[in-house]
């Protein structure tokens, strides 16, 4: 019997050693240690043994069982560890693979220029105002000293929606709207960026829809000197300290006197070139002292209050600042154009 038990142990240990899967191992456990297994079978024959030998065989049988269980346990751990290893190996991530670049968008060049201009004026105490793009004839023209039938209305070809409604042709109606809200009390100090529309044929320098930034200051004792100083600060901050400005007499129905502002041409430094058409100066914006009629119509006492206003096209400013030669680039959204204004930090 002893012999038989030893043989069983040797056989079991060998099989365990060879087992390659947890399932096979379990089968071995059931086969050798189970109730119907050979060890139980051997022990059944114990009845025939002498009283002396019985405990010895009992002890031996236990030893064999233990040896087998222990071996199964060690093998089981080894197989489990190997399974984990295998799984890890199959799920390995190759961290040397280069990452895919994340596409980052950037601000449109016009947005950048507008924000830059806004910041500049906010720094001088201005507030940003807004008004509707579908505007009343009254605010777009009449309240700006342009009554119906006024010849100067032809300066701005308009998209009319009804007799009394149109797409605003400039941001100046926001002047009238803002002053009205102030109910005759100064100071008013705003800039207003926004879209405007004119019946122009699109070409390199014209667009039926474009942007404007309006500025308006109304208070007691505002003079043309304040206007000039403000525009000078603006021009130097926007285009560089070396730039000079000049004011030329002009005409707008809503300002009196009216001016146009030029800055010295950056390309030729004032010598005269193609860009400045040989004059050394480039036109930047229209401006002037708010017409007394405009102040009065908006409820301001023109004997007490004066003001200045200016209006500029951010497209033109962006074109000069970045050397862009066609206004249509701003609206066709060619990614190759837009990408050039990405901040790379
Ligand atoms: N609204 C004028 C234009 O579009 C510009 C302007 C604004 C001129 C304010 C004077 C004062 O041409």
Automatic annotation (TrEMBL):
Tell me, which GO biological process terms does this entry list?
A: phenylalanyl-tRNA aminoacylation
Q: Please report the stretch or stretches of sequence annotated as the Aminoacyl-transfer RNA synthetases class-II family profile domain.
A: 111-320
Which keywords does the record carry?
Answer: Aminoacyl-tRNA synthetase, ATP-binding, Cytoplasm, Ligase, Magnesium, Metal-binding, Nucleotide-binding, Protein biosynthesis
* Pfam families per the UniProt record, alphabetical: Phe_tRNA-synt_N, tRNA-synt_2d
EC main group: ligase
What are the required cofactors?
A: Mg(2+)
Q: What does the entry list as the binding residues for Mg(2+)?
A: 256
The answer to whether the entry has keyword Magnesium is yes
GO terms (molecular function) for this protein are: ATP binding; catalytic activity, acting on a protein; magnesium ion binding; phenylalanine-tRNA ligase activity; transferase activity; tRNA binding
Location within or outside the cell: Cytoplasm
GO CC, sorted alphabetically, is: cytoplasm
* Catalytic reaction list: tRNA(Phe) + L-phenylalanine + ATP = L-phenylalanyl-tRNA(Phe) + AMP + diphosphate + H(+)
What EC number(s) does this enzyme carry? 6.1.1.20
Name under which the protein is recorded: Phenylalanine--tRNA ligase alpha subunit
Source species of the chain: Heyndrickxia shackletonii
The coding gene here is pheS
């Amino acid at each position: 019997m002893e012999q038989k038990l030893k043989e069983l142990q040797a056989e079991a240990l060998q099989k365990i050693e060879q087992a390659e899967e947890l399932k096979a191992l379990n089968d071995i456990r059931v086969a050798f240690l189970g109730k119907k297994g050979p060890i139980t079978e051997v022990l059944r024959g114990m009845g025939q043994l002498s009283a002396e030998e019985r405990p010895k065989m009992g002890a031996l049988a236990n030893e064999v069982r233990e040896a087998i269980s222990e071996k199964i346990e060690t093998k089981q751990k080894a197989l489990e560890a190997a399974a984990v290893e295998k799984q890890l190996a199959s799920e390995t991530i190759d961290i040397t693979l280069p990452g895919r670049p994340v596409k980052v968008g950037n601000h449109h060049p016009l947005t950048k220029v507008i924000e830059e201009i806004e910041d500049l004026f906010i720094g001088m105490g201005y507030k940003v105002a807004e008004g509707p793009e579908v505007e009343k004839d009254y605010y777009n023209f009449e309240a700006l000293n342009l009554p119906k039938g006024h010849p100067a209305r032809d300066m701005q070809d308009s998209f009319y929606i009804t007799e009394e409604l149109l797409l605003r042709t400039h941001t100046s109606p926001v002047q009238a709207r803002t002053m009205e809200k102030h109910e005759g009390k100064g100071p008013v100090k705003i800039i207003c960026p926004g879209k405007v529309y004119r019946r122009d044929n699109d070409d390199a320098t014209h667009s039926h829809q474009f942007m404007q930034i309006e500025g308006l200051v109304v208070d007691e004792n505002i003079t043309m000197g304040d206007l000039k100083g403000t525009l000078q600060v603006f021009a130097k901050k926007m285009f560089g300290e070396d730039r000079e400005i000049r004011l030329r007499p002009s005409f707008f129905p809503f300002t009196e006197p009216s001016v146009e502002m030029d800055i010295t041409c950056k390309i030729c430094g004032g010598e005269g070139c193609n860009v400045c058409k040989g004059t050394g100066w480039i036109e930047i914006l229209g401006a002037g002292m708010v017409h007394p009629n405009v102040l009065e119509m908006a409820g301001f006492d023109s004997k007490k209050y004066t003001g200045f206003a200016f209006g500029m096209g951010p497209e033109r400013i962006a074109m000069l600042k970045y050397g862009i030669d066609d206004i249509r680039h701003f609206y066709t959204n060619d990614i190759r154009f837009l990408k050039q204004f990405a901040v790379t930090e």
